[in-house]
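WP5 quarterly update. Target: Glyoxylate reductase/hydroxypyruvate reductase. Source organism: Podiceps cristatus. Length: 251 aa.
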Amino acid sequence: MWYQKPVINEELLQSLPNLKMVANSGVGIDHLDLNLLSSYGVKVSNTPFVVSTDTADLGMALMLASSRRLVEGYQMAVSPETEHFPADWLGAEVSGATLGIVGMGTIGYKVAKRAKAFEMKILYHNRNQRNKEEESAVGAIYCKKIDDLLQQSDFVLLSVNLTPQTHKLIGKRELELMKPTATLINISRGLVVDQDALVEALQNKVIKAAALDVTYPEPLPRDHPLLKLKDVIITPHIGSATKKTRRLMME
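Structure tokens (predicted):
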């Protein structure tokens, strides 16, 4: 399967009586009905580890681009109307800021390694606490409650699988817990965030900005309000999109 195609439904399974395996490119298998596949005796594979480095890199890229207003800056620099660069055009610091990572799996931990080089204070929320050696290697502090992480973080980065437990994990209540100067970064799945609540939070300055590699649907309708907000960066689900990694995924 590539980009969730072909769609694996009962009709397809009935038409392929000798099917043994569905090999899914990428980590997420939320688009597959695992119970249905199991009932046909079909196994499922995915590519969880080969995507982690590139996705962690993109998480950092989104954080830097958003904080330093890279897209706005580029538009200003190339605009035919620009006659001078304003002296009061400022971004926010990444170095020394507090990063909250929601989901400290393989990708989340690699983000933490990169953030350590930026001398960030790292908080994380996960189903299970990592061991002390792993925590101390990146200087990460465990938050048993997600609320504690949201209240303290300058950047909140989402790196969780989409499951019934994480569906709209970040909604109106969670966004209101965040700092008004905070940025939300999503490199997991669009449905981990309540998009309507996010639009409202950005419009009302409940949080400062968002940097999203994932949305729902993908792509968004061309008139979607997220596409009109200047404090939002959206990339086209490119976490694993490098030549080397895509080749490894195929292999």
